[in-house]
Amino acid sequence: MKSLAPRLGIALLISIGSTHAAAQNAVKAPLPLPSKPLYVLSDHKDVAWCVVFSADGKSLFTCSGNRDAKAGELRGYDLSKGKPVQTFLAEELHGIRWIALAPNGRVLATAEYDGTVKFRDCATGKVLKQFTAHPGGVQCLKFTRDGRTLVTCGKDYKANVWDLATTKVKTTFSGHSNHVYSLDLSRDERTLLTGCRDAKAVLWDVATGQLKGNVPGNKASIEVVRYSPDGTMFAVAGWDWVVDVWDVPTGAKRVKLHSPGGGILAVGFSPDSKSLVAGTETGLLEMWDVGTWRSTGSIPAHQSSIRAIAFSPDGKFFATASHDRTIKIWPMPAPPAEADAE
Fold first, then answer.
1. Is 287 helix (H, G, I), strand (E, B) or coil?
2. Residue 136 sits in a domain of what CATH number?
3. What residues make up the domain containing 146?
4. How far is Cα 171 from Cα 178, in angstroms, rounded to an integer?
5. pLDDT tens for residues 149-198?
């Protein structure tokens, strides 16, 4: 990945403290993984694929269903009263695979198994507009920060950038040889990262659709790719039981994290980029401290595969979605109060 360094163009964030501060940090124990969820949402009728917090942290959105199921669902929950209260249920003939929240906080985009992208009202789940995006099914999607474009990937082996004013394709990314399962955008939104069933993770130039580089070392189908919120690294994970974390500025691998829980199907960075959480095919949840890459614990969080992990904007909670049809909301442990300086 040597050739990626000059192209990614994101400044490396380096924090240099005093010798005394470094010594203090060296002895701090990483925050432990919580052992029990705060809430369990068990009202989905089929596989729970995705979970997303609103930008203000007051709402939660979930989706479920399989291609042939007649139980595709999108649910909204109000979190403002301190516990999840369902606000709407929108049903589909086929499943809903993924959700993205528009920057304005008022519109949800849903990736659907019938090949369409639907735009829905966040308050009611009502469909406002829709278009066909990927024959065979849409697997993932993400809004750009200005809300004017949407990036999607699907079972047609492609990823696309869409102009939402016209719902026309602006850029197509072709080169994968199987279903594209996951995507994410770099912090500057110039680079698209895709992960595919062909065991390839690929970096693309968003403006031109040209290949920027292949991420090496993957030996099995890739289920998830994620950039850290601070933009300095990205994670690639799949059925080879590992999470590879790569450094954006240099293109070098930071760490290879192994999980005993089997294939890794979901990962999430905390909003401060200090923790990485992964979910496996067996329902095992594991967390690592990014500063040391020490595991802070693993727990049997679900009875089946964990398909999505999402953090609340303030970093106080994270949620998991699973094949066992449940959504669980977990507390993030708060760091100990800093001692007063002498």
1. strand
2. 2.130.10.10
3. 31-331
4. 19
5. 999 999 999 999 999 999 999 999 999 999 999 999 999 999 999 999 99
